[in-house]
Design a protein that fits this description.
The structure holds 2 protein chains of 2 kinds. Chain A is of the alpha/beta class. Chain A has 5 helices and 17 strands. In chain A, strands 8, 9, 10, 11, 12, 13, 14, 15, 16 and 17 form a 10-stranded mixed β-sheet that branches. Chain A has a 7-stranded mixed β-sheet with strand order 1-2-3-4-5-6-7, covered by helices on one side. Chain B starts with a helix and ends with a helix. Classes of the chains: A alpha/beta, B alpha/beta.
Chain lengths: 222, 794
């Protein structure tokens, strides 16, 4: 699988083309904004989107775990799209998910979509944030911390190819912060040029667009 | 009789229509523009109204037109005789422009004659009181009938007519000015039951000329610049004129160039479908009132409005189809007995030949057969929701009724059931969405589960899915709609032209693109894609014929003679049933490339597909292909070494082996899927509440398509996509006819330089490679001269 190594807080991390952040020395995988059952949530408005997003996301995750040593997973929030997501999940998806929870130490830093009462007692550690070696992992940016890894914004960037713009998800990185792309199949995104993201990366930063199973690197100066 | 009393002079075809209707037939009235067709269509209604002395406020006649603008126009034209006759017939229009208040009023007190569109008609049919509403309906009039045979709008209309017929039988009158296959028209209109044709021709044949320019006609490109001054002097000769072009981009360029030389201050305007509605209406009004003397227009002015004061029509660029040209020419001189005057302006040598062919066909009244299509299932899905909203139904009854709609006569029960199950809750084999399904079963009956569906249906009815558009705002005004993909390719500060204005792009917020007026040059022009109609099969055959007889048979301007001589000198023209393949090599910088130019004359769509398929074959032969370009006439390939087995490239089995692989890869199919997802109601474009916030529901339909293919490959929407693709993207019929036609008829000319025919593509091939900033006219002219020199043409 295609990836790029980066140094963040003096430690080596890898950005993977599907949106995984991997910390090899800790055998830790960080993924963000899975939004389980986003597709099926639209049934309320009679839009019957093919209900296969959760299984797609989980298969991608299983595939990663299968190919890399993973002892710990940090879900950076918005694991589920709405509180009834587990009810709508298919048996196949549930089985796959619970198998991961059984075998690997999983932590969820709770996001705005995560309804805690539905996520308790399923083998997930629930917390607001988790700090490892001085790096703070949380759903929202932890601006009071020196090093913060977070999700929530679903960053995307416009690449102009053959005079046409295409939007792709991306990692955003500077010396203090990593903004994670969303890992869910149907999730949309927010342009990295939007005020909310620009506020967080006001100094020099790099973006890592994910396109067609490859990851690229662009440096941007403001 | 009332007609005689008024002393009207009537056309024979109007009297004949009236007679046939009185005898109980359905009628197709085929008469040229300006021939009193519309009045003819309403004559039976007026007659019936007078004879029976109706008093009540009920729907009596329904008039359905593909154009909103036409409904108001016809209403106006009808009110004159009605007021003349002093009869009390109420005539109103009902379209998406009609206010909610007026719509409600029309239900309380229905007008006798209602002018509407297929979409507004579908909405009426979805009302719960539909049976009561139409209980005294007598006539349905369908205008521009030919536009419905091969369109999803036509499918929608046919379904609703079939349903209306089961509610209340009526007589139907179809109107059209261009109709070739009248049998087809009869079938579409009323399943061939009791339909009679009334047909009349214009007494005066149109006068068509091809513009003779003193300047050299370019070998390639689509610019009328070489003839600009002649075009301008023609405009000056006439009081009012329409200049038709094929794409919006051409309209913008021509409009700007004309104004640049407009020293006589002729009032020239521009009209295309993407302009803001108010701006378009303003232009239309100014034409009617004579304030505008010349309008540059795209197909947005092809149909409809009876202006009656246009003296000249110019067709700039290839006509592409005979019927289309007839329709356009018909815009001039809206009276039946005076000839329409038209000038054709080809923009390159190929187009010149096409113009000769088109002129000949028009003069011989040799039109294309209309194409018709099998009813599409995405439209059916939308219709089923409409039916369910109106009244509960039994499955068997609905199936029977749908098959009465001619485009759906072959619908099999499996497809019907799959579509129905899709409407219920998505139709996935995994029963995921039962809880919130649209329909609920009550014994044998299907009915809607809750009322919220009504609003969603109303907000999303229709079959025209435009590319994702942004509204274009300059200062505090909206200029129109512009393709999202076009804007997405711009960066702030880039300039482009729209609606005849030079603009500088600023930013996009929500679904609004902001720009400001600029004086800077170097514009990009929005959308070369839209309106690129392929050459019709029919016209293509005539073009081939002209080429096969060698061009010396026809009277040509000098620059074309030169072109023709060069082709004969270095290669040859294809004989009528011959398929010409030319190969040559060229140095491109340091690299030597092999080229193969083929000339099927089958239209751009077919060539695009063929191009991709042949490219795959070239790879199979172990040769590295560099790419291909295609236009309406030819395809040019380039690759790394010589190919020996050219017959292998064009053998018929490429359709079996490679076509499906290609179909799954092409991005075009995803665009098609998006359209189908929206029409069928998989996703809604508009939801209550979203319009106010300007938020659009933008699902990434590409993702949906991918995941569906992976997990549910037999899903009905994928089936519809493939069917649609075979017809619209690939034109499979045309492609296989072509491959069959050329079998054993391939003529290979090995050349040591590009031929005249290959040249235009060579030019396009090079045009695609340079930096886009260089792609201005200067660069292109230089390139053309270089290439011309190379083929010894200067």
């Amino acid at each position: 699988m295609h990836y790029k190594d980066v140094i963040f807080a003096n430690k080596k991390f890898s950005f993977f083309a599907n949106g995984e952040l991997y910390w090899p020395s800790k055998k830790t995988l960080i993924i963000s904004d899975l939004h389980f059952e986003k597709g099926s949530s639209f049934n309320k408005s009679n839009q019957y989107i093919p209900p296969f997003d959760t299984i797609e996301t989980l298969r991608q995750l299983s595939n990663f775990i299968h190919n890399h040593p993973v002892e710990k997973i940090i879900f950076l929030g918005d694991l589920i799209h709405d509180k009834l997501a587990f009810q709508r999940m298919t048996a196949k998806s549930k089985k796959l998910f619970f198998k991961i929870l059984e075998n690997i130490d999983c932590t969820l830093t709770v996001g705005n979509h995560d309804n805690i009462s539905f996520l308790k007692d399923i083998g997930l550690t629930l917390t607001d944030k988790i700090v490892i070696d001085g790096i703070c992992f949380s759903h929202y940016p932890s601006i009071d911390q020196r090093f913060s890894v977070f999700g929530h914004y679903h960053p995307k960037v416009k690449l102009i190819i053959n005079a046409r713009g295409i939007w792709v998800a991306c990692f955003v990185l500077n010396k203090e912060r990593i903004l994670m792309p969303s890992y869910g199949y149907y999730t949309g995104g927010l342009s990295i040029k939007s005020v909310q993201i620009q506020e967080l990366f006001d100094a020099q930063y790099e973006i890592f667009p994910l396109a067609k199973e490859k990851i690229y690197k662009l440096s941007l100066n403001k | 009789m009332w007609l005689k009393k008024k002393g009207w002079s009537l056309y024979d075809h109007q009297i004949e229509t009236l007679r046939l209707i009185k005898e109980g037939f359905d009628v197709i009235l085929h008469a040229p523009t300006g021939g009193g067709k519309t009045i003819g269509g309403f004559m039976p209604s007026i007659d019936d109204f007078i004879n029976n002395n109706y008093k009540s406020q009920e729907f009596h006649t329904l008039y359905i037109s593909p154009l909103k603008a036409l409904t108001t126009d016809v209403q106006r034209n009808l009110l004159n005789p009605i007021n003349d006759l002093k009869i009390n017939i109420t005539v109103e229009t009902r379209t998406s422009d009609t206010s909610t208040y007026n719509k409600a009023k029309q239900i309380r007190k229905p007008p006798n004659f209602l002018m509407t569109t297929p979409e507004s008609f579908a909405l009426l049919m979805a009302r719960t009181d539909v049976i009561n509403l139409f209980k005294n309906l007598k006539f349905v009039i369908i205008d521009e009938l030919h536009t419905f045979f091969d369109s999803k709008r036509g499918h929608l209309l046919s379904l609703n007519l079939a349903r209306l017929r089961s509610i209340k039988p009526f007589q139907v009158i179809g109107l059209s000015a261009t109709l070739k296959n009248t049998n087809l028209a009869k079938k579409y209109l009323s399943n061939n039951k009791n339909t009679k044709l009334v047909s009349t021709h214009s007494k005066a044949a149109p006068e068509i000329t091809i513009l003779n320019s003193g300047n050299r006609i370019p070998w390639s490109g689509h610019s009328p610049r070489y003839a600009l001054s002649e075009i301008y002097s023609e405009i000056l000769k006439f009081r009012s004129s329409i200049l038709f072009v094929n794409t919006r981009a051409q309209a913008e360029i021509l409009f700007e160039s004309l104004w640049a030389i407009n020293n006589k201050n002729k009032k020239i305007a521009i009209h295309h479908g993407s302009l803001e509605k108010e701006l378009r209406k303003k232009v239309e009004k100014e034409i009617v009132e004579g304030h505008v003397e010349c309008v540059v227009a795209t197909s947005s002015l092809d149909l409809g409005l009876d202006w009656g004061n246009i003296d000249l029509v110019m067709q700039i660029g290839a006509p592409k189809g005979v019927a289309r040209l007839v329709q356009r020419i018909g815009r001039a001189n809206h009276t039946i007995n005076t000839p329409s005057r038209a000038i054709l302006v080809p923009t390159n040598c190929f187009e010149y030949v096409e113009c000769i062919a088109a002129k000949k066909c028009v003069e011989l009244n040799f039109l294309e057969d209309e194409i018709y299509s099998e009813g599409s299932l995405d439209v059916l899905a939308q219709h089923i929701v409409g039916v369910a909203i109106s009244q509960r139904f039994k499955k068997e009854d609905l199936y029977k009724q749908i098959k009465e709609a001619w485009p759906y006569r072959n619908l099999n029960i499996e497809d019907f059931e799959k579509t129905l199950s899709f409407v219920e809750n998505g139709g996935y084999s995994l029963q995921a969405y039962e809880e919130y399904s649209r329909l609920r079963r009550d014994g044998e009956y299907y009915e809607i589960r809750d009322k919220s569906l009504v609003t969603k249906y109303k907000m999303n009815v229709g079959t025209i899915v435009e590319a994702e558009m942004l509204r274009l705002r300059v200062g505090n005004r909206y200029l129109g709609n512009i393709e999202e993909w076009f804007i997405s390719g711009l960066s702030a500060g880039d300039t482009f032209i729209f609606g005849g204005k030079r603009l500088m792009f600023e930013k996009v917020i929500g679904n609004i693109a902001y720009a400001k007026i600029t004086a800077l040059e170097h514009q990009k022009i929005p959308s070369f894609k839209g309106g690129n109609l392929p050459l019709s099969t029919h016209l293509s055959r005539t073009v081939r014929k002209i080429f096969s007889k060698r061009l010396d048979a026809v009277d040509l301007p000098d620059s074309l003679k030169k072109w023709s001589e060069l082709q004969t000198k270095f290669s040859s023209f294809p004989k009528e049933n011959e398929f010409l393949v030319e190969t040559f090599k060229r140095k491109n910088g340091k690299q030597e490339k092999y080229y193969m130019a083929v000339h099927p004359f089958e239209g751009r769509n077919t060539h695009q597909t063929l191009g991709f398929l042949i490219l795959r074959r070239i790879k199979k032969l172990g040769v590295q292909p560099f790419g291909f370009v295609a236009n309406d006439y030819s395809i040019l390939f380039s690759f790394s070494k010589e190919i020996e087995d050219i017959d292998f490239l064009f053998s018929k089995d490429i359709l079996i082996e490679d076509l499906y692989e290609w179909l799954e890869e092409t991005p075009l199919i995803k665009r098609l899927f998006r359209e189908i997802a929206i029409i069928s109601g998989l996703i809604y474009k508009n939801l209550p509440g979203n319009q106010k916030t300007g938020k659009q529901v933008t699902f990434n339909t590409d993702l949906i398509y991918e995941v569906l293919r992976k997990h549910e490959p037999h899903h009905i929407l994928l089936k519809i996509t493939t069917e649609n693709a075979k017809k619209d993207l690939v034109d499979l019929d045309r492609l296989s006819t072509f491959l069959f036609r050329i079998k054993n008829k391939i003529k290979i000319n090995k050349l040591n330089r590009a031929s005249a025919l290959a040249f235009s593509l060579l030019f396009e091939y090079h045009k695609e490679t340079p930096d886009k900033n260089e792609l201005d006219n200067f660069y292109l002219e230089k390139l053309e001269n270089e290439l011309l020199e190379e083929v010894n043409a200067l």
